[in-house]
Amino acid sequence: MHVRLWQDVYQSLEEEARARKESMNSLINQLLSTYTRDEMLIDKSGKIVTSLDTIKAYLRYIPDDRLAEFSQDVVEFSAGLMLARRGEITLDSVLEEFRHQSNRGWFDLSLQKENGKNILTFFHELGPRHSVALEIIATRMFELASIRPKTRMTESTVTVIF
Questions:
Q1: Model pLDDT, residue 116
Q2: Which of 21, 54, 105, 139 has its CA 20 to 30 Å from the CA of residue 124?
Q3: Is the dihedral angle over the CA atoms 74, 92, 107, 42 positive or is it negative?
């Protein structure tokens, strides 16, 4: 397949690929994947993707007693995306959804295997309330895939063991 890009678009992609230390091919595949798997589904659902600054504001203004409800709303939205993408919610679809959220800049991810257990760690800079919300979101998303994880959290990390 051959595609013609406008010169300014090509230059922007080239700069971004260089900054990420990735090939242009890899970057373009990631961008198209995100668009076709996420953005189109989100557009069809009538929802919007929020920025990191908006999430910070939500976390600042949502009362403590409503944080679990906010987290559940995120889970339900994510569940809809997972079902639209794959038709079912499995461990793979949950991990894929977390990768998509990470690509949006909401957190960084690390997945490791240790002593026969998978350890998924979320790293963020949004403070302890985000850790609380993220721990609820992660637990409930894994439960949708019939997995009961153990979790640990700090002010800037949430670790899920499954």
A1: 94
A2: 21
A3: negative
Distance of alpha carbon 33 from its chain centroid, rounded?
14
How far is it, in rounded angstroms, from Cα 162 to Cα 150?
A: 7
Helices (H) and strands (E) in the chain, counts: 7, 4
Distance of alpha carbon 131 from alpha carbon 153, whole angstroms? 6
Give the pLDDT confidence of 83-141 residue by residue, as tens digits.
888 899 999 999 999 998 888 788 999 999 999 999 999 999 989 999 999 999 999 99
Give the separation between CA 54 and CA 3, rounded to whole angstroms. Answer: 35
The contacts of residue 80 (CB under 8 Å, 6+ apart) are: 45
Q: How many CA atoms lie within 13 A of 55 on its CB side?
A: 21
* Whether residue 59 has pLDDT greater than 90: no
C-alpha span between 136 and 110 (Å, rounded): 18
Supply the pLDDT for residue 141. 97
pLDDT tops 90 at residue 54: no
- Report the distance separating Cα 100 and Cα 107, nearest Å: 10
